[in-house]
Amino acid sequence: MQQLEAHEVSLHKVFSSDYDFRIPDYQRPYAWDVEQAVQLLSDLEEALERGTGEPYFLGSVVLVKTKGDARAEVIDGQQRLTTLTILLSVLRDLAEDPDLRSDLGRLVTEPGDKVLGLAPKPRLTLRERDAGFFRTHVQAVGSVATLLALDERTLPTDAQKSVLRNTAALHRVLGDWPEKRRLELVRMLGERTFLVVVSTPDLDSAHRIFSVMNSRGLDLSPTDIFKARIIGALGPEESQESARRWEDAEEALGREDFADLFLHLRMVFAMRRAERELLREFQDQVLSRYLADRAGSFVNDVVVPYADAYARIRDADYKAAHGAAKVNAWFRRLQQIDNNDWRPAALWALRHHENDPVWLDRFLRALERLAASMFVRRVYTTPRVTRYAELMRELDAGHGPDARSLVLTETEKADTRARLDGDLYLATKTRKYVLLRLDEMLAGRSGVSYDHPVVTVEHVLPQNPKAGSRWQRDFTDEQRAEWTHRLANLVLLNRAKNSYAQNHDFAEKKAKYFTGRHGASLFALTSQVLHEDKWTPDLLRKRQRRLLGLLAEEWDL
Q1: What is the rounded distance in angstroms from the CA atom of residue 165 to the CA atom of residue 160?
Q2: Which residues contact 120 (CB under 8 A, 6 or more apart)?
Q3: Is this structure's pTM higher than 0.90?
Q4: Which among 106, 137, 252, 274 has most CB atoms closer than 10 A?
């Protein structure tokens, strides 16, 4: 690690000519919300009230900075530095004393010094998209009032909206303080408030520092670091356009799903199970193919189209002249499974066959069958991911719906049938998926889809029938043990459980529990029960065979 330096630096030295803070374009935008900004001020206020004279530490920043050169690229700490600049600007514009206003102004903006050859400029320069706005509406003397008069809806970026909201919140709080109280805060900021400033001239070293440090706020994610390496490998004009396209893709997906996308991209490219953390593997397995001379291609041919594919899968929003409904139905079904290890294969399919809905329908049918079988059989993560990695290699080799990894062995088929024929209700993670898939087959609908806030799996024959009830006459103890939790005895309701009603005899249960204002008959699986006059072991036996047969046919078991 080259020339690593770490120092406790007082705030008045942080905001001085010693540092010319720049937020690189590859960084994500300013994103602190009002709660975080006000919390920063609350923490300072608590330290002020304690009045012990002890140093107060605001956390750390990580910089790429060469010793003796003021220019400093902010790798970690952008949120804190930006919010502190807003705080100082609010205090400046609220100050009644012109000398105090001038002193605070010098913390926000370098006034320039002809003797030292320093030109006037802001202490902190945001990303290109927001730098001008921040300079005009926050850092310029007297600008806070004009900022607060703006309509948030007219602002073009989320970062600018966050700046407006946080400035307004801090202004409301500090505006209620007397001038003396604000002066006390300013003195505490200048005299005994510190940041730990960690700097190194090497970008990779700064990233390694970041990865092992814990600091308050919204820190860099691995995707931010990948962005730094890709955008940093481009020329000035191309880097700005690529940074914009990257950020548009991230905003469209949302930060959490965008990070998830990169986990799947690693599988798409590496075609093997992850063995180390993403930060290390993605560099070797993916970025190394692009960094030499194809960095722009990674943005245009990987990030942007795969982010679009991810959104269409997530939102079941595939579009085509024909066949789109079938493809979207498979996406909805797959998303009801309790893992997303299937997603790299779906992303690959949509990326390479987006104009062939017939191919996608065949492939996704086979993918859902495999995913559902492993879900029902409760296949553990390692063998499950290994199976999908094998599938990715077969896809890369030119196979599709006929890929060998998509085919269930006879043993896998038998195990799936056995799980479906067992005490399905006790398989709490899989039972609803199985019943919803079965329900759409019975209803002739396409796709696992329900808009009810609550969907529950219920027994017809109750788990604990009342003493002397018809249930105890129609079923022996052995028969109840055999049938209570099996597929034939289960239905779907769009309301929460009612432990009292669950124990009614069959006729009363149909009238009071399976129908009524909640519309339980919306589920085909439940409507079938309403047509039965009685509920007996013989009926359950026939119903079990029929329902299992439907599932076996659908999943080719």
Answers
A1: 9
A2: 109, 110, 111, 112
A3: no
A4: 137
